[in-house]
Amino acid sequence: MSVHIPDTNLPRIIVIGGGFGGIEFCKRLDTNRYQLVLIDRYNFHTFQPLLYQVATAGLEPSSIAGPLRKLFENKKNFYFRMGEVTRIHPEKDCIRTSLGEIRYNHLVIASGTKTSFFGHDENFKEVFPLKNLPHSLNLRNSVLRNLEEALLVDDSKERQKLMNIVIVGAGPTGVEMAGALSELRKHVLPKDYPELDFSQMQIYLIEGMSRVLSSMSEKSSEDALKALKKMGIIVLLNRLVVKHDGEQAALNDGTVLPCRTLVWAAGVTGSMIEGLQNVSIGKGNRFLVNEFNQVQGAQNIFAIGDIAQMISAENPNGHPQLASVAMQQGVLLAENLNRLSDKKNMQPFQYLDKGTMATIGRNKAVVDLPGKIHLKGFIAWLAWMLLHLILLIGFRNRVIVMINWIWNYITYDRSIRLILKAMK
Amino acid sequence: MSVHIPDTNLPRIIVIGGGFGGIEFCKRLDTNRYQLVLIDRYNFHTFQPLLYQVATAGLEPSSIAGPLRKLFENKKNFYFRMGEVTRIHPEKDCIRTSLGEIRYNHLVIASGTKTSFFGHDENFKEVFPLKNLPHSLNLRNSVLRNLEEALLVDDSKERQKLMNIVIVGAGPTGVEMAGALSELRKHVLPKDYPELDFSQMQIYLIEGMSRVLSSMSEKSSEDALKALKKMGIIVLLNRLVVKHDGEQAALNDGTVLPCRTLVWAAGVTGSMIEGLQNVSIGKGNRFLVNEFNQVQGAQNIFAIGDIAQMISAENPNGHPQLASVAMQQGVLLAENLNRLSDKKNMQPFQYLDKGTMATIGRNKAVVDLPGKIHLKGFIAWLAWMLLHLILLIGFRNRVIVMINWIWNYITYDRSIRLILKAMK
Q1: How far is Cα B251 from Cα B242, in angstroms, rounded to an integer?
Q2: C-alpha torsion angle, residues B279, B285, B286, B288 (rounded to 10)
Q3: Model confidence pLDDT, tens digit, residues A230-271
Q4: CATH superfamily placement of domain B121-266
Q5: pTM score of the predicted model
Q6: Is the CB of B60 inside 8 Å of chain A's CB atoms?
Q7: Least enclosed by CB within 10 Å: which of A4, B43, B270, B367?
Q8: Can you give the three-state secondary structure of A111-132, one letter per residue?
């Protein structure tokens, strides 16, 4: 077995990861000048901002995924390989993968982040992260199965455990997840489970910082908190979940919350690939890069997006780990490498902040735009939907997601509540 | 743990299985007269005739599934339980399930069929049946993963093994599967995998009888065979697959076909539930029933659909195992039980044959209507699509499937080619 990528006289660029950064890079790279190899564990790009809607039965997996081969179908000198990268050998310009070794002329690391339990994996045994499609399908299956089981238990405490959901982390993912679950609880589940009393179902949102959406403006945090409370979500700030044993979640202030399902929307850490010197690695397992996204101490290795840490006076901890940063870095790096092949100079990266947003539920969202402009309510919600439709990959996905959203809006329904694991 | 179904003074009817027969029965039963309990291993009804389109990346699982709770959301005295029935105790009018015991006044067995390897399970270790949604997702994952792997192997025989697909059984499922795979091979895969030579990919359709679609007219068999051959499918008649070891399929005439993927669209056997006397069980593990679908030797136990065998002069082996038989039996049995509660007599079952159909591909189908009317080509294909849209459960599913079909027709694409298991 070998990777079977033909050797040509074009320099070869390997991209690790088909996330937002990786695919923007691949789109813009001029493959008349380079041979381009993209490696990912999955054969599709995942539109992560909508994973929570798959988990809450509002959208299908395929609606938020774009098959990578399809995406680059017409790109010449492009090779996709589905596999895992296990090590970088910078001394011989090659990477080791589950498919064999591949040499490169330039390497672009766009491997993103993975879930981190802050070094205490052993305390979190049955937890649902929300980083990829299988995660969101597992969560959907589990929430629905627990309700089926709740019908069968005799003890009301047991029942509560099965119905409750604790979400850790009140960033955009946590807030959106909490909002979507609250709408399920209000509009869908009581019809599906008339035998259950949904006033017994608690949705907890736990945040270590002093406000929800702490990366957004104070105004957005306030509006979001108000909306969440109005939807009956119990928001606990300044608190950490220190343990979950599959039956209850323990907080650092001694509180114990009975729950089977714990959704982890909190810490992430860089999806590190071994082999580079330790000096290249910064806080949170991110590769330290210069303004051209070149990894410290390596001439022909670049890192973009969440895995990259570009420290500057304005960004002493690097840029925020957002899709927009990754996309902008992907675009610029491709252009820089195109330039490089013309012996032109590379341009330094400058992040253009176009704003941040989060949706809480039906007609409820918050948007921060540059210049301290703050939107909320229906208009913010419309803006959120429009932007997400535009950013989705593929015309078909946009159409299908839009139809689903309109359908869900009119009917108050979430149609995709299938439990795809059989119950014994 | 217990099933928690309230005891009322209404007689209780338990239905085992939410397939075509089971749901028609539940729809028509008057739940002012009866308490109705539906048990299924899954929380959704599966529209089995379109499973092959999920397996070939044309449709999403949710498009052909209808959540059972949603379906009977407004039905009073209706209880759904997700679980497996393990035994019938006719002597005490109760069934044993994975959720506990439940007593009944009337029992309706609508458990359908499962895959059968004609008593030689040990010879078929890595085989893909097509009876439920997880099956079709497994098949989709496997076909696509094998192509990813085919890129990596050095040996051309190994590569062929990964690309070839053998389909066992040329009934409607086998024929439709072969046709859909052939269209994938022609229109989609060469674009996705420009590095592979798809003239090397063989699709075999193996049938034990002397013609394809043997349950349809001779004319339909001929037309279908012609179309299949034109699409480059290798049809082998009068032959049986006797073994598949994950590397090759062995036929009874000594032929050996290299293939990783073997799709099993051949034999089925009744999904038997233990506990009834042996005299109640006929050929193919079906419950022998009288013209009222009453199981032989049991007063208050009924069987409908594929699991029932109603032997008569016209049907010495019982009715064909078709959705339309199951639906008609479900409707009549519900009406009969409604009648029974008014002390009226039950009506005997009379199958009304409305015709049979199978689609082979784009603009290609065959339809047999009563009165020996035979349609083929574009008009048959339109009829097939229309009927399947009508029979699909839920308005949303009809809309989404129609959009997908139009999309696939115009673009020649199959969009849902996600491999949802990561590759190491």
Answers
A1: 5
A2: -10
A3: 999 999 999 999 999 999 999 999 999 999 999 999 989 999
A4: FAD/NAD(P)-binding domain (3.50.50.60)
A5: 0.94
A6: yes
A7: A4
A8: CCEEECCCCCHHHECCCEECCC
